[in-house]
Amino acid sequence: MADSADQLIQRALQNDGLNLYLDTNFLLDLVRPERRSASVDLFDEACSRGWSCSSSFFAQMEALDVEQEHAWFLARLQAGQHTEKLLRRRRQRDLTSDELREVFKRFMTTLVERDLQGRIQWLPLTRKGGELEEALALAAETNISAPDCLHLATALQAGCDILVTSDEGLKNAARPYIPAVKPEELLAAIRAKRE
């Protein structure tokens, strides 16, 4: 790793720019801003500075999965089912086709309304790009979960400068490979350097 996150921020503030990789939880914050406002503020700051923001189609799929689980859980709670039972069954959700379409429509509408489709470069997972092979190597050499190996490999293969995640485990595990920070940490560093 050539530069620390602090060095990259300093360079970026001198108009060299940055390419941020946005993890799934960051996307979820953008879709539901009440989750973590620092992500929304950081995204707006990065876009206003002309920095590149990248994520993956896998992150979209993972975020959609979380949104489906959220919709399923809320619907079942409203139907009077007990939380304990729902927690045991959450990976066996049974959304109808109409419910699935509605969650997908709401998710995609939010991406379009926030202009995320136009402001985020969506990276594919491909064998040709090397992401899958790198993810497999990371999975074999580290304790990083398979989904997080896909995110890290995609960020590395795309040449991203910083991985932005609110997942403390991924942040710490990714640091030997790429500077990794929480949204609020990067936002605070940008604001401190600006002053």
3D structure, described in words:
The chain is an alpha/beta fold and 195 residues long. The chain has a single domain (5-194), classed as Rossmann fold. The chain has 11 helices and 5 strands, in the order αβααβααααβααβαβα. It has a 5-stranded parallel sheet, sandwiched between helices. The protein is globular. The mean pLDDT is 85.
Question: Layout of SSEs?
Answer:
Layout: H1 5-16, E1 19-22, H2 24-31, H3 37-48, E2 52-56, H4 57-78, H5 83-89, H6 97-113, H7 116-119, E3 121-123, H8 131-141, H9 146-157, E4 162-164, H10 168-174, E5 180-181, H11 183-194
Parallel strand pairs: 1-2, 1-4, 2-3, 4-5
Helix pairs in contact: 1-11, 2-3, 2-4, 3-11, 4-6, 8-9
